[in-house]
Amino acid sequence: MFNFGKEIVKAFFIGILVFLVRGLIMYMTGVKIEANYELFLDFVYNQLYAVVLYLANAYFVSYMMSKYKHDLFKPKNLLVAGLLSVSISMIAIFALRFFILVILKGYDASTFFAGEKFIFYWFSLTISITITAAFYIVYYLKSRQDTKVKEQKVIAGTASAKFDALKNQLDPHFLFNSLNVLTSLIEENPDSAQKFTTSLSKVYRYVLEQKNKDLVTVDEELQFAKTYMSLIKMRFEDSIVFDIPEQAQHPESKVVPLSLQLLLENAVKHNIVTSSKPLHIKIYESNGNLIVVNNLQTKDIVKKSSGVGLENIKQRYQLLTNKRVSISQDNTSFKVAIPILTKEISVMRQLPEKQFDDSYVRARKHVEELKEFYYNLISYCFVIPFLIFINYKTSWDYKWFWFPMFGWALGIVFHAYKVFVNDGMLGKSWEEKQIKKYMEEDNQQRWN
Fold it and tell me: pTM of whole model > 0.90?
């Protein structure tokens, strides 16, 4: 949406900047600059050019952006937009020259038309093209940034949904496999089946508590692995030999929840477990990994895998970290190494929307700042001409009006910058960005 009031302030600001730069160039090239009425008129005409050319091109660029959006930067559309921008600038400069020379200064129209040359246009046209090019560059960069942000939000949303789906697999998967064990126990050992049912309720409560977490401590996972293996040993008794550390080497180290349970279940499911061929399972830490290794005595016939076990762990780690789950196998053993996560790194997540009350307060404050600026600008437009008139009537030989005119103008420029163009520097937007940055670093993290 084209905000006329905001854009005219920007045009005024750019006009002052162009006037000062042009004056500096003239001074450095030896042109004598005198603070007189001619300089004042030059400043007025400069601002007239700045406002008209800026608004004409800003409105045109805004129109092209709304019409083509991201397609504006296709070569064909960009070429058309560039040619039209130059044409609009030429027409605007011609109209300004006609207005100043013919309407204000009273030049003959036919003489004006006959004497027009391109050299009269090149400086204004160059400035106009430069500013218009800046419009397109800024919009292009903003467009690219918006696209990246949208892509990252989609990626983050998809990853979050996928991670939740993977975690939700654990609940029915664990229950289904535990009921299979219970069914076998009922047939083989009814007394053990009763104990298994009691222990299962405790274990299942842990599953419900942990499955919605992204990470749990290694100590919690080791403790749960012991509890889970006690259930398995009710069925297989001495057919399973289990070796597990009492605690983690680093108390703060973490892994994805239920990873050990899935690996232990996988080992039991795919190997022969009998008293004559006991299954040896060992869990230990090595080189930043939690390793589960078992002797390999593969069953001849294994039921088709649901794909929840190993694949589930691998996919959850892929969504959390660059470290990967390692799987190795030889003729005698099968080993899985899952990364132990100890270092936090930031991850992009969408922050909650700010409350309405906060937005209202900020909007009201901004409106007050706008009112103050416009009062300042209107006061300048009325007071400075009055001071020039007083100076002209009293002591025109000493033109003191330049001091308040340029001093106040500089104040207006800084005021305009504070209200409208403070995003990139140490203004309110900078403060908000820093606050947001530290909040994200503190509250939105993932593990590496």
Answer: no
